[in-house]
Amino acid sequence: MTAQTPIAPDPHAKDVILAAEHLSIDFTLRTHILHAVRDVSLTLHRGRTLCLVGESGSGKSVTARALMRLIEKPGKIVSGRIELDVDGKKVEIDKLSDTAREMRAIRGRRIGLIFQEPMSSLSPVHTIGSQIVEALRLHRPLSKKEARAETIELLRQVEIPNPDKMLDRYTFEFSGGMRQRAMIAMALACNPDILIADEPTTALDVTTQAEILDLIKRLQVSRGMAMLLITHDMGVVAETADDVAVMRFGRIVERGSVDEIFHQAKHPYTKRLLASTLKLEGGAAREKPPAPTPAPLPILSVKNLAKGFGTGGKWFGKPGFVIKAVDDVSLDLLPGENLGIVGESGSGKTTLGRLILRIVEPSSGEVVYRGRDGGEREVTAMGKAELRAFHQDVRLIFQDPFASLNPRMTIREIVGDPLVVSGRLRGRALDERVAELLAMVGLDPAAMERYPHAFSGGQRQRIGIARALALDPRIIIADEATSALDVSIRSQVLDLMLELQKRLGLSFIFISHDISVVRYFCDRVAVMHRGKVVEIGDAEQVCTNPREPYTQMLISAVPNPDPRNKRMLHRVRASREP
What torsion, rounded to 10 degrees, do the Cα atoms 87, 90, 95, 97 define? Predict the structure, then answer.
């Protein structure tokens, strides 16, 4: 095991607000003890941002929660020291109990925490305002009226429109970006000395991510806070960090200034993380073959497709409304092509994929599929039997590798399910086909009797790909298939899909908000905004030299993994609409 790097002399020692030294955390499980964090030391300085970076399971979040004594049982701090500066006095956090009054006073008042997933961190049965008011009154002697006025001001600071009305809304009435802004307002309610942000932008699209990171940075500078930012996105690290600590297997393997880590990295693991990031930034993964003459006929054509949600007439005496999720979209998918669909959350990308599969019925337009025999069939007019056959040729890879696999089924049952349902294989032939599919995606066929919980996120996504390939499809629709994965795992899964495409002659519709992934994987890109395709063209051209203002804004919001060339500082900003 790699020894932890020595701690260099600290040039900002007088500004240290929190210091953790030789911290170790264990989880006592039924069969063994899991050493989640081993001998970790780090310091937070007023006005500076420390990024804690590493892949899932490296111990980042456990380390951060230990600083606030929020480790869930059976986890516990087994050694080390955590010292917080409170108005010039040193408070040893590691010696306080999790439920001590002093510890409760530190949480929120001295250390604020932004969670990764605001939907599960905010109460669904209380208004946003009442939750922030509760946090304020818990730590400050304010009346309800004063706390409400303070809440409105906090929501205004985090740029939530109409804060005097929005504070009386519930969590489900906020978009993902607005929920994250509300979490930031709650974390900053008591003007803490330290802000811990645990993957605050992982679930957000690039423009919302850029706005949230910009907002956090401005608030940090204006309030002089220390910040611990936890992430696995090296682009975010380059754009926001002053100092970086790289974690692997519960240990810090390298630390230094952001420039040192990106341009003078010493540890092989850090170099591998950077290489995976730069690989995706480098452009197309494969050389485009010369265009055949004559041009091939599309394998799938979408013509003037539209879908509206809502009511056109009156509803309880009030005028109805219709939201156009997909608005007059036309595009073609060629044989062997990877077509990327990009855009912000709510742009209609996922709805378009569901309309193509006819999981959702379109309001108008048509989808035409050219079958294996060369004949054209209109998907929107298919009956049940025809649609079942179409779904064998066009398969879907889901976004979440954890939620998309049934935890009560073995891998053999999950991968073999399409074959059983379609009546193609049973018994020994089924087992042989499942083993072949698992080997095809780089998994050990001997593991087919295990359950999903025994596999990592990247392995689960490989299982999802194997399931999608079970019926020998011609087209795969990948809906954010790599967004939940770490950067190195993401690169491996993309290379796997490219290899399978070459071997099996697949065509992909690749839905994503990650521009670098789309540029790496796709031949052409269609950019969606508010249900419409605003630009379509060659992936390299759209991602490096876009023509449309919206696409320019989208590309400029992508973090650049180079601290010497921060792209987000010069990003094109969208005009704010009321």
Answer: 0
Contact 539, 524 (CB under 8 A): yes
Cβ–Cβ under 8 Å, residues 509 and 528: no
Report how far residue 150's alpha carbon sits from residue 155's, in angstroms, rounded to the nearest whole number.
9
As a whole number of angstroms, the distance between CA 573 and CA 556 comes to 9
300-560 matches 46-59+99-278 in CATH topology: yes
Three-state DSSP state, 80: strand
Cβ atoms of residues 198 and 112 within 8 Å? no
Model confidence at 311, pLDDT cuts 50, 70, 90, reads low
Burial (CB count <10 Å: 0-12, 13-18, 19+), residue 259 = middle
Report d(CA 374, CA 544) in Å as an integer.
36
Q: For residues 67 and 82, is the Cβ–Cβ distance under 8 A?
A: yes
Residue 399, Cβ neighbours under 10 Å: how many? 18
Helix (H) or strand (E) holding 469: helix 457-469
Q: pLDDT tens across 167-218, in order?
A: 888 888 776 677 878 888 888 888 888 989 888 877 677 887 888 788 888 8
Please report, as a single letter, which amino acid is at residue 192: P
Confirm or reject CATH 3.30.413.10 for domain 46-59+99-278, answering yes or no: no
Q: How far apart are CA 362 and CA 324, in angstroms?
A: 11
Q: What is the pTM of this model?
A: 0.79
3-class SS string, 136-187: HHHHCCCCHHHHHHHHHHHHHHCCCCCHHHHCCCEHHHCCHHHHHHHHHHHH
**Residue 318: C-alpha distances to residues 112, 313, 315, 321, 526 (Å):** 43, 9, 5, 10, 37
Contacts of 399 (CB under 8 A, 6+ apart): 479, 480, 481, 483, 484
Measure Cα distances from 316 to 309, 479, 489 in Å: 17, 37, 51
Where are the chain's structural domains?
Answer: 46-59+99-278, 300-560
Q: Which of 495, 537, 540 is nearest to 519 (CA)?
A: 540
The winner for highest mean pLDDT among 302-306, 308-312, 440-444 is 302-306
- Average pLDDT (75-81) is 89
For 181, other C-beta atoms within 10 Å of its C-beta total 26
Fold of 300-560: Rossmann fold (3.40.50)
